[in-house]
Specification:
By secondary structure, this protein is of the alpha+beta class. The chain has 17 helices and 11 strands.
Length: 596
């Protein structure tokens, strides 16, 4: 049977020593969010994930969801777990106190999201979608809609969804056909069908609030003609209760490869009553708030599954006896040595470990930027934080999920045949991780967003700023005893990233296919550099701790060893990526369709 223990030591190291979580308490409205309070909250969240959610993860996968007479029943234990989750206040952690939230930093929810995904990804989808709906309403909803719907979303009694995709459209939202016809009372009649709607129907909450993209009768074509509407499953009564059933039904649930306990629904809207969110024909602007929040959350899904897969693969490698060390027996009294002695097994586990810890640090750095963007008193700091969040959102989504899926596969390989059977749990993590590369915009779309929108944004200001930040830390580390090699390695990879950036800028003007052909490799190149930058920061802190004799010596020595592995065994892959980018689009686009 698999096991999970929240990596609180690593989380606290990052929050306290690397990223200075104490700076958040200096932001307006976060005065009570001291590091000690955040530690306490996260410790409680860890216990909930370990003791309540993890035990129903495998059983939820085995049972799945069931559609009965238009209603979805979640697996045994999910409703009780959700009731406790909402009752304990977890749905309200980072929500606005004016509408019933606890008003803690978004960073707190960010860390909690990782633990949720490790413990039970399918369960995490339900409150995760609700938080996305909350974010969109907070940013673009009228005060009337906020007062009516936000308190219910925050206390968890109502759930939320995002309804974008249609069967004929897929990622191309510009060709959706769902209609919104104005009514005399100021509402709209919504008609159409949406597919792949996570948490679209379930029995965890008494109502579900759907945020639906649709077109008004006078809408221009393309994405410029899309509006956003709030469509509840049940119409609310004036006193905030549950009224008549609205014209939205679940036509079917998808039978999926993974996340089987998460209800993925086909929703039919038949003259359903809805309210406009934001302005007419500007629904994409409002929905992007929810989409970007979801993209960051999906990145954390990749990280969360990679972490729990690593924990179980490591435990197996320490216990499984097979073969002898090439350097001679290490377990002289046993019939064989633990497989952890074998270099290839170690190499796989260290790859997962180094990526997990580096990706976690990068994700948390971005999470803190979100709070700085919204709360800092200095407009320049807010802008800088917003720039970095925009630049890193596609990287967090795509790099963390690509590597998360790779890592779950390495973990499965570590267990050999036992990894392939259900009892040990690893095969579920592989299946669950695969969807994260697809939904909320496929990773290829994220790469195109990075190179096509984020790099040229503001004349390249965002990417230049990122280069400046990394270069400053490389220069500082170059003169620190023991960090010279790490600084040199990261500096070389940063140069490769800068070279690739200039190459895309030059070639892209003449031939847009050059950008498309290089996009995925470029995103991975930036991901490796960004994670390497975080490892340089962690190594700097751990080196200083060891020099001063403070902290857990074994913990910090392990950090430095893991950093060395990353810089010597993982980061060099940037050279291969640059080579692929330099090869250009010709080797790809030269083929005629008949030649495939």
């Amino acid at each position: 049977m698999p096991a999970y223990k929240a990596p609180l030591d690593d989380i606290r190291f990052l929050l306290h020593d690397v990223h200075d979580i104490g700076q958040l308490a200096a932001l307006p409205g976060f005065e009570d969010a001291t590091p000690e309070m955040i530690d306490e909250v996260l410790a409680g969240g860890a216990t909930f994930c370990e003791e309540v959610l993890f035990p129903i993860n495998q059983s939820g996968d085995a049972e799945g969801v069931h559609l009965e007479n238009g209603a979805v029943r979640t697996p045994a234990g999910f409703k009780e777990a959700y009731t406790r989750y909402a009752g304990d206040g977890w749905t309200a952690v980072a929500a606005d106190a004016n509408y019933g939230g606890q008003g803690l930093p978004e960073m707190t929810r960010f860390v909690m999201e990782e633990m949720l995904c490790s413990a039970n990804l399918s369960f995490s989808m339900y409150p995760g979608l609700s938080h996305g709906a909350y974010s969109a309403l907070m940013s673009h909803g009228s005060e009337e809609l906020k007062q009516r719907f936000l308190p219910k979303l925050i206390d968890g009694s109502w759930g939320g969804t995002m309804c974008l995709t249609e069967a004929h459209a897929g990622t191309d939202l510009g060709i959706i056909t769902t209609k919104a016809v104005p009514s005399a009372d100021g509402t709209y009649a919504i008609t159409g069908q949406k597919i792949f709607i996570s948490a679209g129907e379930h029995d965890l909450t008494e109502n579900i609030v759907h945020l639906v993209l649709a077109r008004l009768p006078d809408a221009p074509s393309g994405t410029k003609g899309i509006s956003l509407f709030l469509v509840p499953k049940f119409l609310p009564t004036p006193d905030g209760g549950i009224g008549a059933r609205n014209g939205v039904t679940c036509g079917s649930v998808e039978h999926k490869m993974g996340i089987k306990a998460s209800a993925t629904c086909v929703l039919d809207f038949d003259n359903a009553t809805g309210w406009m969110v934001g302005e007419a024909h500007k629904g994409m602007r409002a929905m992007f708030v929810m989409m970007n929040s979801a993209r960051l959350a999906v990145g954390l899904q990749g990280l969360g599954l990679s972490e729990v897969a690593y924990q179980n693969a490591l435990a197996y490698a320490k216990e499984r006896l097979q073969g002898r060390s090439l350097a001679g027996p290490k377990n002289a009294g046993g019939v064989a040595d633990p497989i952890l002695v074998h270099p290839d097994v170690r190499k796989g586990l260290l790859r997962i470990k180094s990526l997990n810890e580096g990706m976690r640090s990068l994700a948390y750095w971005v999470g803190i930027r979100i709070d700085l963007e919204h709360r800092h008193a200095d407009a320049a700091v807010r802008q800088d934080a917003a720039d970095m969040v925009q630049l890193m959102t596609p990287v967090i989504k795509a790099f963390l999920t690509d590597k998360g899926f790779d890592n779950t596969n390495i973990a499965l390989q570590t267990l050999g045949g036992h990894g392939y059977i259900k009892e040990y749990g690893i095969e579920q993590y592989v299946r669950d991780a695969r969807i994260a590369q697809i939904y909320e915009g496929t990773n290829a779309v994220q790469a195109l967003d990075l190179v096509g929108r984020k790099l040229p944004m503001e004349g390249g200001r965002l990417v230049r700023r990122f280069f400046e930040i990394v270069k400053a830390d490389v220069d500082a580390a170059a003169s620190v005893d023991g960090l010279e090699d790490a600084a040199k390695a990261l500096g070389a990879s940063l140069y490769q990233l800068q070279k690739a950036t200039m190459l895309l800028a030059e070639r892209g003007f003449a031939n847009p296919d050059e950008v498309g052909a290089a996009a995925t490799e470029y995103l991975h190149l930036m991901g490796y550099v960004a994670v390497g930058w975080q490892w340089l920061r962690m190594a700097t802190v751990s080196g200083a701790k060891l020099a001063s004799g403070s902290g857990d010596r074994r913990f910090h020595e392990a950090k430095l060893k893991t950093a060395r592995f990353y810089f010597s065994r993982v980061l060099p892959e940037t050279a291969t990526l640059l080579g692929a980018i330099q090869s250009g689009a010709a080797p790809i686009m030269a083929f005629e369709a008949a030649e495939f």
